[in-house]
Amino acid sequence: MAETVAHAETGSRRALALDALRGLAILGMVMSGSVPERVLPAWMYHAQDPPPLHEFNPHLAGLTWVDLVFPFFLFAMGAAIPLALSRHLERGVPLWKVVVRILTRGFLLGSFALYVAHIRPWAMSRGPDTTTWLLALLGFALPFPILARLPARWPVGLRLGIRAIGWAGAILLMASLRFHGHHGDRFSVERSDIIIVLLANVAVFGSLLWLISRHNLLPRLGFLGILMAFRLSAPVEGWVGWLDGHSPLPWMLQLGYLQWLFITIPGTIVGDVLLRWGKAEHDTAEAPAWSAGRTAGIAALMPLIIVTMLAGLQSRWLWQTTAAAAVLCGLGWWAVTGAATHTEKLVKETFSWGAYCLLLGLAFEPYEGGIKKVPDTLSYYFVAGGLAIFAFVAFTVITEIWRRPRQVRLLIANGENPMIAYVGAENLVLPLFALTHLHRLLDSVATMPWLGVLEAAFSTLVLAYVVRLFTRWRVFWRT
Predict the structure, then answer these.
(1) Does residue 74 lie within any of the structural domains?
(2) Domain limits at 352?
(3) I need a labelling partner for 16 at 20 to 30 A (CA). Which of 54, 93, 389, 434 fits?
(4) Cα–Cα dist 64/66, whole Å
């Protein structure tokens, strides 16, 4: 959730659809972690973690909406990489400084992964009490002096002093807390947030790869082939397998983490398309080639494809789902033909990449025992990446063709500030609910499974509006 994640500016235009997609993903992460366990249908949980026992089953193939939220975020991260880095290059920042910024961002994300895992209420106590909730709120407050953008007019010494205070406070908090779990009761690098760790890896390597191939897409596509070779060779005895099992920083760097570039790299390709779109001269007098009915059809087709894939793959209707995907993608290709304006061409090109990724992922579906998030399969990477592109296309129609960003303003605000949203769920909203005893009232009302879902939705909505306030006040966490 670095600067390459938080920013979606393309020249003088901001890719609001990318912000909306990122907001949908981050709020989906929060929502999926808040729904009641054991009592809901299997499609409300990770496919390999079904109710009622939630015992992990690596042999259980399928795909649920919960399995999509993280790859949607990864795709958005990849798409934002060209937008953020090109801005630095266009301002004349030397290449070596851009590389240093990328590595610094990776360090900050790695540190953030450790910090987040240590300040969660349930990391500090099996049964959080008032002290735990107050410490959780302190944990939420300390990143502000570290990550918030400080006014440039402030003296450099003052800004550095504020950063130093934040770092000292965060380190002191983690050093003084006691924890429970198999990593011991003290601070441990083994206790880290795997989601942030994966983001750090793909942010660094995806950014470096884009720098190398920003003028020529072929090296980026070629790297996917090398990545595929690593994946196939890792289980076999040899140097790739040895490399896969040895790392100087195993809690942070592992060869297997790079497999998520199968989602991030297609994201950078869409980011290149966005970059060209943002730099194009958009004439307001451009005559659109698509009728209102056609754009409405395109917008409706995108969620239809997503829902069809989720229902079909989770139900294991494999050939039927593949046939439906081919028909729906064919219908989509027909719908996006004849694009005239820059935005219509953006929709057409991104949809084409999405259709390719989806059909490629479905072709891989029988391999590795069917589509799975854990252990992640090739089918999962490409299907999830393709569906992320379709969601982006739908948001593009809403924000750019219909020019109605207000309809998704809440998602956009959270997409601009994802780090606060990610931490705020457990370290702001839950502590406030507990300290005010609001959680007791909500629990007393949520006496049925689907009422529990409504409770989770309410908590997520409260978080979304809190993050929107921070965004409106221009308070962001940046790495």
Answers:
(1) yes
(2) 3-279+287-472
(3) 93
(4) 5
